[in-house]
């Protein structure tokens, strides 16, 4: 029901902005937190506050400037939603649910993104004697993807993109690190030449990880065939 209502509303309003604040700072949610000192965006008075069961605070403000736009952003643990002045309360309820979920998803993605990058950086420094996130010719990105089912990792050196199959997410760290390291080397060496393996050998658990992945693939094939 709520979902239906929210979808219908999309015809009338669009979500103009989903901005995120950083995840640092005070973890203590506070109601009516210095509305005066706040930026232009949240200068509107707080209309009401949801205290959700997970204790995340959602402040709703009505804005004369927001004619058809609903905006939501994070202010530390607090979510601020700005809605048009005339929007009905029950419509807002539907939106708040949707917006908070979307912001949560995004926060989660960003944090796992950051962790991945940190891991890759460490590996790069430790075994390649350089931070490829700084030294590569184009900015390097690394992320989990769900649409990659035949390869554990892939890399496009030209645009610095490294993708890891989400199917590895529950595997031991040494396995994930081995795949990350494999893809990092591809930023430097595109093929699997002897030079590639020379660098790969620097990762001490390379053979062990390979055995793990081979075993996993073998078992998968074995068990899915009927
Ligand atoms: Zn490769």
From TrEMBL:
Organism field: freshwater metagenome
Pfam families linked to this entry: YgjP-like (PF01863)
Coiled-coil stretches noted in the UniProt entry, renumbered to this chain: none
Domain YgjP-like metallopeptidase as annotated: residue spans: 72-214
Record protein name field: Unannotated protein
């Amino acid at each position: 029901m709520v979902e239906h209502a929210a979808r219908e509303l999309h015809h009338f309003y669009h979500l103009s902005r989903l901005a995120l604040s950083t995840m640092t700072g005070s973890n203590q949610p506070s109601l009516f937190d210095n509305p005066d000192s706040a930026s232009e965006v949240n200068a509107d008075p707080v209309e009401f506050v949801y205290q959700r069961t997970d204790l995340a605070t959602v402040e709703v403000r009505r804005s004369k400037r927001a004619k058809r736009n609903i905006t939501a952003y994070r202010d530390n643990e607090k979510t601020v939603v700005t809605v048009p002045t005339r929007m009905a309360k029950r419509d807002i309820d539907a939106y708040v649910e949707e917006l908070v979920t979307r912001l949560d998803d995004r926060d989660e993605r960003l944090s796992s993104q950051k962790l991945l990058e940190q891991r890759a950086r460490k590996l790069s420094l430790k075994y390649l004697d350089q931070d490829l996130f700084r030294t590569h010719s184009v900015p390097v990105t690394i992320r989990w993807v769900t649409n990659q089912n035949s390869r554990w990792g892939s890399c496009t050196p030209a645009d610095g993109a490294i993708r890891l199959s989400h199917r590895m997410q529950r595997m031991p760290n040494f396995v994930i690190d081995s795949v990350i390291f494999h893809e990092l080397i591809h930023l430097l060496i595109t093929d699997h030449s002897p030079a590639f393996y020379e660098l790969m050998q620097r990762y001490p658990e390379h053979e062990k990880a390979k055995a793990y992945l081979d075993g996993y693939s073998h078992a998968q094939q074995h068990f899915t065939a009927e």
